[in-house]
Amino acid sequence: MLERQQLRRQMRQLRRALSPATRDEAHRQFARLLSGTHRLRPQQRIAVYFAYGHEADLRYVIDVARRRGCLLYLPVITDFRHSRMRFVRYRTDSVMRVNRYGIAEPDPRHAEVISVRRLDLILLPLVAFDERGWRLGSGAGFYDRSLHHLREGRRWRRPTLIGVGYECQRVARLQPDRWDVPLDGIVTERGLRWFERHPATL
Ligand SMILES: Nc1nc2c(c(=O)[nH]1)N(C=O)[C@@H](CNc1ccc(C(=O)N[C@@H](CCC(=O)O)C(=O)O)cc1)CN2
Ligand SMILES: Nc1ncnc2c1ncn2[C@@H]1O[C@H](COP(=O)(O)OP(=O)(O)OP(=O)(O)O)[C@@H](O)[C@H]1O
């Protein structure tokens, strides 16, 4: 646990050290790489996020997804104390509010709240990731909690989970916790890499 905290701090530091130009080029690269997967098709339901701090930024991905007619969703904190979030439809004219981290989110009282299983693709921010598709996130467990139920029962078909981060956030091996949900893929400025969904990990 302490190790995870330390690693999180270290990886955030590495991320912060990237130059604005490197960062921007990486953000454009995410859009190019994801465009090439045929995942950004009309009517696909895709959960994105608004970059917080120095998180890998999806602005160009959001631009492409919009142009292609994808339906976009953003995470919205619904219960801060218990680290609960839901995914809410996001349009250019959405009524927005700001959560306690200062991240803009669509107001769930004015927009469609969708269940995780109806999403086709979720793009998740990474603090660190390993060769097998395990991830370290913000540390509050919001994504883990909202995706945990996918591990119950048979393998899920939807949604596909793709982590987004910079190459410098790669580590050799993360020790997954009981509640961690393995990623289907990871996109960095170097490329998009897919993982097998290994039965033993589900
Ligand atoms: N862009 C984005 N939106 C998101 C998430 C996310 O990880 N990224 N979330 C998914 O979880 C939820 C917000 N979760 C968060 C959980 C913890 C911290 C946090 O601990 N921040 C610290 C330190 C940050 C730092 O070191 O830079 C802080 O604000 O003090 C922030 C957001 C919902 N929206
Ligand atoms: N499904 C769950 N059930 C119970 N507790 C959970 C669950 N998921 C996460 N947690 C709790 O949340 C805390 C943070 O989890 P973890 O360190 O895996 O977060 P993370 O993956 O970095 O964050 P996130 O999922 O928000 O990106 C853990 O200490 C754990 O107590």
Automatic annotation (TrEMBL):
GO MF entries: 5-formyltetrahydrofolate cyclo-ligase activity
Domain of life: Bacteria
A Pfam cross-reference name: 5-FTHF_cyc-lig
UniProt key word Nucleotide-binding: yes
Cofactor(s) of this protein: Mg(2+)
Enzyme class: ligase
UniProt keyword terms in alphabetical order: ATP-binding, Ligase, Magnesium, Metal-binding, Nucleotide-binding
Enzyme Commission designation: 6.3.3.2
Catalytic activity: (6S)-5-formyl-5,6,7,8-tetrahydrofolate + ATP = (6R)-5,10-methenyltetrahydrofolate + ADP + phosphate
PANTHER family: 5-FORMYLTETRAHYDROFOLATE CYCLO-LIGASE, ATPASE INHIBITOR/5-FORMYLTETRAHYDROFOLATE CYCLO-LIGASE
Sequence similarity: Belongs to the 5-formyltetrahydrofolate cyclo-ligase family.
Descriptive protein name: 5-formyltetrahydrofolate cyclo-ligase
Source species: Steroidobacter flavus
